[in-house]
Amino acid sequence: MKNNYAKKLLFLAVLVFANVVYAQSNLMESNYASVIQNYLNQNKEKYGLTVSDISDLSVDNEFLSKNSKITHVYINQRYQGIPILNALSSVAIKGNAVFYYANRFTGNVNQRVNTTSPQLTAKQAIHNVAAQLNLGAVQGLDLIEKNNNIYLYSNGSVSQTTIPVKLVYFQNEAGNLTLSWDLSIHTLDGANWYSVRVDAITGEIINQNDWILACDFGDSQHENHGHASNPVVQKESKFTLFKDASFMADGSQYNVYALPVESPNHGNRTLLSEPANLNASPFGWHDTDGISGAEFTNARGNNVWAMEDRNGNDGFGYSPNGTATLNFDFPLDFNQEPEGYQDASITNLFYINNVMHDIWYQYGFDEASGNFQANNYGNGGAGNDYVRADGQDGNGVGNSINNAFFGTPPDGSNPSMRMFLWSPVAGLQDLVTVNNSAVAGTYTAVNPATAAPNNIPGIGVTPVTADLQLVNDGSANPAEGCNPIASVAGKIAVIRRGTCPFVDKIQNAQDAGAVAVIVINHNNPTNDPAYVPYVNMAGEANPVFSIPSVFMNFDDGEILLAAMQTETVNVTLQGPSPFMLDGSLDNMIVAHEYGHGISNRLTGGPSQAGCLTNETQMGEGWSDWFAMMITLQGTEDYAAGRGMVTYASGQGVNGIGIRNAKYATDFSVNGFTYGDTNNTAQVSQPHGIGFIWGTMLYDLTEAYVSKYGFDDDIYNGTGGNNKVMQLVIDALKLQPCNPDFIEGRDAILAADMATTGGEDQCMIWEIFSNRGLGVNASGGSKFSRTDQVENFDMPLETDPTLQNCTSLSVDEFKQSDYKVYPNPTNNNLFIKTNKSFGQVTMTITDINGRQVYSQKVDLFGTVEVNMNTLQSGIYILNMKGQNIDANHKIIKN
Length: 893
Prior knowledge:
By secondary structure, this protein is of the alpha+beta class. The longest helix is centred in the last third of the chain and has 22 residues, at 687-708. Residues 1-23 form the signal peptide.
């Protein structure tokens, strides 16, 4: 058995240093130097640049994208040979000309630099950072390599890896360029991978970010939307792999939640045989030398090394062994703590990392563009950067549960994935399963034993199965069960909520022989804003009840009661497992984390790791979208949408997930638009901001699938899902360092132009405009998250990219043909049109999906909508007629 990693740390140090040196190569070394320089000379005024601003440039990376046939060149602006941090422009070359240019250069550089001579040495900068970040005493700090103002030091007993240091200019919010030392330290506990700028004069840290992104999946939504796991539903896998006769068979097999299955809630495990993709992993998943025969029999190979890290020391832990036959078929029993099924869990972690590598390789996340491989098989890029994936991580830094991390250093250094355990669920859960009848399925209820401290027992892990029976206490309201009730022996008693205490109702049902109780909430006919659909039943029972009970909402209860009128309804009540949940079995989380690596490596080029640090960066949105795409199926209901990470957060398959809303195209389900990025109270940073970008990508996916269909072959298919996957990867390569929503949108439009000649420009514009990212939207400052301006306008039809737009014909509506104002409004709303749309039904829906206004009008001129009677909040206005179908988010002050 061969091992190519015996000297991996030294090899890694050399590769990282080589990368940094390469990043300083002169622009003249590019094959397209003259083309790029000529373009900049001709367009310098457009970008506010002077001749001196573009006289000292260097190539950070250059590679060919096979799909788009674009050569991507990432150019760093310098001053007297010193690079300006993140002044990194993306240049797309096609047909020996600049096809697309995304500017990130800054103007009048020579007037804004403070000095060219550091007073602090590179070594002193490391000591200062260690002291200011409380990383411990620096010991044995040795210089390994030096090239001009670029240094490579040993780990100094404060870093897991060698410490690269280089001289840069850092641009602050005021536009000043401060000479600084740029360095990175991967802390010994693995919790942080600091990327730091130290003032080269004062020695103070003036800027820092963390290459390790802590996703805090459970920070807000986990407690509020907890549900129990659904019973496993068997689904036939339509996930298509690609093989041919030349594939080097290794006999490997893995018992995993095979894609597109999302989690244990969404389907059973499948025993897969040799699932590695020929194009992306031609020697299988356990190879590292490019010669037939596996180098490793554990969950380790060219793309990932998956292992446990329960002690949280970020070391090299246990990895399941498939023996010489590479048989990773391990048992999985959830009736125990996750440590008991670590082999099955880590195998799943290994599998998802590998398929993420293989899938996105097809769309252009390959070696040259900075993907994660130990051996790049001669295909360019820097190797020795497989993913280190820790499962059941026990790091005790305050984030050791309900979380996941991913750290992305530049190409040539290993990214770090850390998967944590999740708390057992509590409160609102899918506790009720109807086993027969037309209303069979799972229903949500509150489990009082976990909802509040009281003497009303809820449902435990032992199920209770019986027929339902509505109680009758002989009173004027017989179903409220406030008086002694007729026999319900052996039944699950169904009781309506009323005026008497919950303990009285349950006691009466128990006395009548019930084996369990379901209490159904009352209705809210007056739309009382204080109405709560679920309550925590409480009260003192003496003696304590011997039967369990749950509380259901009115709507679900009415469904059961209606079915009981015509048939016997049999139900099982069962609570959630008391054991921790394992995030490595939730494919959405693993894929989301891996997605951070994709967006970070592709934005600004593979040599960068800090090009998604601006205030409105969209990294979380791309990661959510990557995860959704690999679990997407042809049966997806885009209007109803899906929740993000429902298994690990303890929700059922229809749960809202961990974001502000489900990903959904229906505005009554997800009404978030670009302007909501300004809402610091309700939209978090970066997760909430990313969610809004992810919403736009989800809408775009639906549009592509609607137009081109869905293809189960995720590797080589030609459906709309395949096309949009390619589009987004191509766009990531085109956008500049630290893009905002506007630049992300423009990169997608440019990617479509590059590959189809603009075939889908209209559709793309319509999707983004509908969510407030129209042609006149503004991204504001890179240093602020509260100055974005949304706009719903489409470009004019005179735009040459829209000349073939059938969806913008004069017979159909354009948002420029009408105006909705004022928005926000204090009372009335006006719709002003410059053409007749005929008879239109205007409806207003609140954020909970309830229709609060409906009126038919002739939409021409100015139409007034009275909103005086509506409470303050967010609403969706829909105007629907023969010539229009449009949604607008309305804010009522």
